[in-house]
Design a protein that fits this description.
Order of helices and strands: HHHHHEEEEEEHEEHH
Helix content: 40-55%
Strand order of the largest sheet: 4-3-2-1-5
CATH topology of one domain: Alpha-Beta Plaits
Oligomer: single chain
Radius of gyration: 28 Å
Number of strands: 8
Largest sheet: 5 strands, antiparallel
Strand content: 15-25%
CATH class of one domain: Alpha Beta
Shape: elongated
Length: 274
């Protein structure tokens, strides 16, 4: 009799529903995890992405169901509250419009497989790093400087994904316009040969084990950069997992060659005249 009276009380029922929703969310997440552990339908990164997404969806749905249940006990007061505050209702509509747009775009990115957990991406041309979290409304990327950058899907105007089996290393030297191009060409061509000898394991290989694209000198790729000098570039097609290390080593070889051969960097003449 005591428990029957207790169950009739609204706070007790709300508590029981909350516990039931938490248990249901836990069981759904556990089932999804077991499914991925027992199958190999998708690659590991895509499974991690779906797991993150499923966690966000179950959390949101659980919260929505809980709020609906709680508000159902105050249904007589809810219409008066909404109609009595037109300003609040309008503000809520604007907020929900933005949130819903984020959700729709997030689902689109996920099911079109444009991004995965752990991908290296460039967002809007000025933010780049590794995706650490994918939620329903936003993604978080860890930038090279260590900062964690969060952006909602509706604010993404351009997204470049480097993790599709291959990435192109593209490093360059910005040399003073008074630098003899013939000398610079000779030095950087030697750097390309050095990279092909020392860092061939990073290069993407075809089915016969041959590099798809070796490190190569692309000559002058840009003139009068900020009215300071010309850009000489070197590139190569590498495995996605080796991109960071390959980029570091190519930069090292370029810097070493510039030092050994006394190439005129953009600030070298200005420094010597001071």
């Amino acid at each position: 009799m005591f428990f029957l009276d207790l169950f009739k009380q609204v706070p007790f029922r709300i508590l029981m529903v909350a516990l039931l929703i938490i248990l249901t969310v836990y069981l759904i997440r556990k089932s999804i995890k077991l499914f991925f552990d027992k199958t190999s339908l998708l690659d590991e990164r895509h499974e991690e992405t779906l797991m993150h997404f499923a966690n966000q969806v179950t959390k949101l749905m659980g919260l929505v169901f809980f709020l609906i249940y709680v508000l159902s006990h105050f249904v007589n007061f809810l219409p008066k509250l909404i109609t009595g505050s037109a300003v609040v209702a309008g503000a809520l509509a604007l907020i929900l419009q933005h949130i819903i747009r984020d959700y729709i775009m997030g689902i689109t990115y996920l099911f079109e497989r444009q991004i995965r957990h752990g991908d290296f991406v460039i967002i809007n041309g000025n933010r780049q790093g590794k995706i650490e979290e994918i939620s329903l409304r936003h993604i978080k990327i860890r930038q090279y400087d260590g900062y964690l950058y969060t952006i909602s899907y509706s604010n993404i105007t351009e997204l470049q994904n480097g993790n599709r089996g291959m990435r192109r290393v593209n490093e360059s030297l910005l040399l003073n316009y008074k630098q003899n191009p013939d000398e610079a060409f000779k030095v950087i061509e030697e750097v390309a040969e050095t990279c092909n000898q020392k860092y061939t394991e990073y290069l993407l290989k075809d089915e016969f084990g041959e590099p798809v694209e070796c490190y190569k000198f692309n000559k002058i790729t840009e003139l009068n950069v900020d009215l300071r000098g010309h850009k000489y570039s070197l590139s190569g097609l590498v495995n996605e997992g080796d991109f960071v290390e390959a980029s570091k080593m190519v930069r090292y070889e370029l810097a070493l060659a510039a030092y050994k051969n006394d190439l005129l960097m953009v600030d070298s003449l200005e420094t010597s005249n001071e």
